[in-house]
Amino acid sequence: MRPALVLTSLLLAASPALADAPKLNVLYVLADDLRCDLGCYGGPAKTPTLDALARAGVRFDAAYCQQALCNPSRSSFLTGRRPDDLRLWNNGTHFREKNPDVATLPLWFKDHGYTTRNVGKVFHNWHTKEKGDRRSWSADEFLHYAQHGDDLAKVAGEPPPNAALEYGRKYGNAPLCERRDVPDDAYFDGRVADEAVRVLAEVKEKPFFLAVGFWKPHAPFNAPKKYWDLYDRAKLAGFDPNPPRDGPAVALHDGRELRGIPPMQVTFTKDQVAEIRHGYLANISYLDAQVAKVLAALDKHGLREKTLVVFHGDHGYHLGEHSLWAKTSNFEYDARVPLLVVPPKCPQAGKVAAGPVELIDVFPSVCDAAGLKKPDGLAGVSLAPTLADFTVPTKAAAFTQHPRPAYFDRTEKGVPDAMGYSVRTAKVRYTEWRDWESGKLLAAELYEHPADAAETVNRAESPSSVEVLKEARAALHKQFPPDVAPAKR
Q: Which domain holds residue 257?
């Protein structure tokens, strides 16, 4: 029996109600800039809701985005194509400009009889409605067309900020860090959760695909005060701020998302670093509390046994490690993401899938779970075999890439100088930086896992790493042949 049919059969056997239901609902929950700091991943964040969700389904321990930047990543997993397939590696190009007829995950479900709704940031948050993807949805998007820097507390008579440090710059129109004693709906994500609850009540009698995109833990770090109060800053773990030993300069970047654009950049003080790291955890706990509201509404309407729940981030994040801030690298902190998949009455509840998977695998997996055929051209593979038996690996390697400069479209040249292609296996992360026009190898990185999980020493030139380097290089070259220049791929 094919893996997709195995998963569907297991779901039907686990829940007789599904056998009579024509369609399985999908609740697709996304987070922004979320690295694997959740409690269920052994991280420092207090996330009781997501930890419970992990216990109800399968937690993928080694899930990876295809590019650590919002638009390329979301365009990738929502179409099931790699960035090179879409010819999209920046935030300024809408995926339909080069792929006008590509199927998206919600559009595919809409075309197969589902009511599809968008609450919050799902696709890249284009600031005007001219660049959304309205055709993917059965109704207008809610709180999708906005900017992170406009997420200001909206409460009448609100108190002034509580002991916010001066950073020398803001995040858009908002302070980079802010701690106010305000209700959850003072900020975007509280309103996203409230609207998702309302939409669930509206669509509960229909087969639905509800995508709920939370804006956190993306900067600014301004969760309501009660979430900051969950943490004692003095007890938060330290980190290594040094770049990898023997690592190439091309692997790094200037952290301009948080530090500002050169030459008007700030260098964070020790206290500012501590506050940012504290605020990031507060944002995660705030996110977790909003997810709780949506799941509670799902249970209230008796929908849990009729709904597949998927939760993941769009990419990871750096908080000073490797000297880096925010995303746009190929390192583990940026590439790895949390991924939780919870079928109704999951037969593998609480299990952890250890092998590598990719976010492009979500599209075919959700189709299989719902019993839908898949569109042609998907680059990912279904997680159905692993969901049926967590010990069955999905694939041997995951791939992530990023151009240099990170924001090449904002340069006078307008195209990259180089592309970094990275493969993650169970043993290593191996990255090649290739010239954009010629494909010439510029630099290579090899980090051995799990011994060097923080990727602190580049062993690409180490004699002791020859065999693992050979294996990783073969895997990378099979996916991204070295004889094809990135510009021509």
A: 3-388
Q: Where a domain ends, among 368, 388, 408?
A: 388
- As given in the structure block, the two tokens for residue 340 are 């939780």
Supply the DSSP symbol for 164: P
pLDDT at position 157 is 67
Give the pLDDT confidence of 195-208 residue by residue, as tens digits: 999 999 999 999 99
Residue 275 located in a structural domain: yes
Contact 96, 117 (CB under 8 A): no
Catalytic residue annotation: 70, 124
Break the chain down into helix, strand, coil percent, rounded to 5: 35, 20, 45
At residue 10, the pLDDT reads 46
Going by pLDDT thresholds of 50, 70 and 90, the confidence category of residue 155 is confident
Tell me: pLDDT of 477 over 80: yes
Q: How many domains does the chain have?
A: 2
Residue 311 lies in a domain: yes
70-79 helix and 362-370 helix, angle to the nearest 10 degrees = 30
The CATH number that applies at residue 107 is: 3.40.720.10
Two tokens at 87?
């010819």
350 with 439, same domain: the answer is no
* Residues 367, 430 within the same domain: no
Q: How many Å from the N-terminal Cα to the C-terminal Cα in the chain?
A: 36
Copy the structure tokens of residue 19: 């056998």
Contact predicate 374/367, CB 8 Å: yes
Q: Encoding tokens for residue 381?
A: 């593979």
Q: Give the closest residue to 432 by CA, choosing from 409, 456, 405, 460.
A: 460
Distance (Å) of CA 242 to CA 61, 188, 249, 386, 456:
26, 34, 12, 37, 8
Pair 259, 210 in one domain: yes
Examine the domain organization and report whether 331 and 446 are in the same domain: no
- For residue 233, which phi and psi values (nearest 5 degrees)? -55, -35
Rounded CA separation 420/26 (Å): 34
Reported pTM: 0.94
CB atoms within 10 A of CB 264: 10
pLDDT in tens, 420-461: 999 999 999 999 999 999 999 999 999 999 999 999 999 999
Measuring CA to CA, which residue among 331, 184, 238 is closest to residue 44? 238
Same domain membership, residue 439 and residue 366: no
Asked if omega into 183 is within 30° of 0 (cis), the reply is no
Considering the domain boundaries, does residue 405 fall inside one? no
Q: Which of 167, 407, 174 is nearest to 264 (CA)?
A: 167
238 and 175 part of one domain: yes
Q: Cis ω on the peptide bond leading into residue 450 (within 30° of 0)?
A: yes
How much is the average pLDDT of 238-262?
A: 97
Co-location of 384 and 433 in the same domain: no
Burial of 411 by CB count in 10 Å (0-12 exposed, 13-18 middle, 19+ buried)? exposed
- Are residues 468 and 448 in contact, defined by beta-carbon separation less than 8 angstroms? yes
Measured in whole angstroms, the distance separating CA 115 from the mean position of its chain's CA atoms is 24
Do 312 and 179 fall into the same domain?
yes
